[in-house]
Amino acid sequence: GSYKIAVLPGDGIGPEVVAEAVKVLSIVGKKFHHSFDLRYADFGGAAIDSSGVPFPPATQEVCMSSDAVLFGAVGGPKWDTLDPAIRPEKGLLALRKAAGAFANLRPAKLFSELADACYLRPDIVANGIDILVVRELIGDVYFGEPSGIEVRDGERVGFSNMIYAEHEIRRVAEVAFETAMKRGKRLCSVDKANVLAVSRLWREVVTEVAKGYPEVELSHMYVDNAAMQLVRNPAAFDVIVTGNLFGDILSDEAAAITGSIGMLPSASVGGANTPGLYEPVHGSAPDIAGQNLANPVATILSLAMLLRYSLNLSAEADAVEAAVAAVLAKGYRTGDIYRDGMKRVGCTEMGQLICDA
Ligand code: NAI
Ligand code: MG
């Protein structure tokens, strides 16, 4: 097929890791006979330097008319002294908002080749870890009104409102079931329905949505138990769907047990006619920028998610993920995942090895 991809390298190591993902994409195009129209645009600090704002209208136009957006990272000391209203990170929030991204997909996969970097006991990870957390991104206690701090009966009272409308639960549940269909067809919905009214509605709506996906095995779990099971028996999970607050915590927990931030991809997906947004979990890493030290794997795995979820190219996505695993299996490591006896490589070498694989 023929696809339009907006490419936003951003700042710091962003352009370095995105360049390697683009190399991989061009191999995918050749091998599987697709044409990818790459549409580069300024974003973040780079856009502030060229046009005064982090998410210029021209960049927005490029993104919204593309099938998907591949993004590196933004920010850095150069822009830290600017007014918060025009900081690079503001551009990211504006992009997510423009994309209507209500579902954040964060895989936590332990490559067996990197099992030594895992914090969990070897017997616990013997069967591997391959979890995808689907976190609702634009609702819940982070946005619920009323919220504030006021004086009541002579003391300060703080309050935030955990609130979900059923359409907000339904649409993220649908993303989670669709995602489960493309994976192991097991979905665990995480809530606190034994205590919270909002969670009782969450559970009801997820159970209603399940009727449309008879092939997916749905279970429910309380969030405190889920936090425990993630470290006790992570192999029990395939896809997890949960609200914004619980998902914030559980996605970091799930990611941390698998190793380096340089390995972690993410996707933010949403509305029917808006592009999915794919980016590494890490930031612009100014401490290693410009030195060919960054690990490009998080961005290359984000590209695999783009192929799988926005373009429906699962064989292509599988090929990219298999290439990453093959290169790790041969012992090649960037600094963040290096240990004695392995072969240390830089960002461009890692990207090239994955292309060759
Ligand atoms: P960071 O994720 O950029 O770096 C944290 C640590 O991890 C650093 O030691 C860095 O060298 C290392 N690291 C990160 N990515 C790596 C990779 N691919 N390979 C090897 N090592 C890697 O977070 P930090 O230092 O808190 O923030 C730096 C800048 O990035 C700030 O301006 C921050 O606002 C911005 N940021 C941007 C994000 C985004 O664009 N989505 C997300 C997080 C931070
Ligand atoms: Mg977090």
Automatic annotation (TrEMBL):
Keywords: Amino-acid biosynthesis, Branched-chain amino acid biosynthesis, Cytoplasm, Leucine biosynthesis, Magnesium, Metal-binding, NAD, Oxidoreductase. The keyword NAD applies. Its cofactor is Mg(2+); Mn(2+). One of its GO terms (molecular function) is 3-isopropylmalate dehydrogenase activity. Residues 4-354 form the Isopropylmalate dehydrogenase-like domain. SMART domains: Iso_dh. InterPro entries: IsoCit/isopropylmalate_DH_CS, IsoPropMal-DH-like_dom, Isopropylmalate_DH. The keyword Amino-acid biosynthesis applies. Its EC number is 1.1.1.85. It is an enzyme of class 1 (oxidoreductase). GO terms for cellular component: cytosol. Pathway: Amino-acid biosynthesis. NCBIfam families: leuB. Homodimer. This is 3-isopropylmalate dehydrogenase. The lineage of its organism: Archaea, Methanobacteriati, Methanobacteriota, Stenosarchaea group, Methanomicrobia.
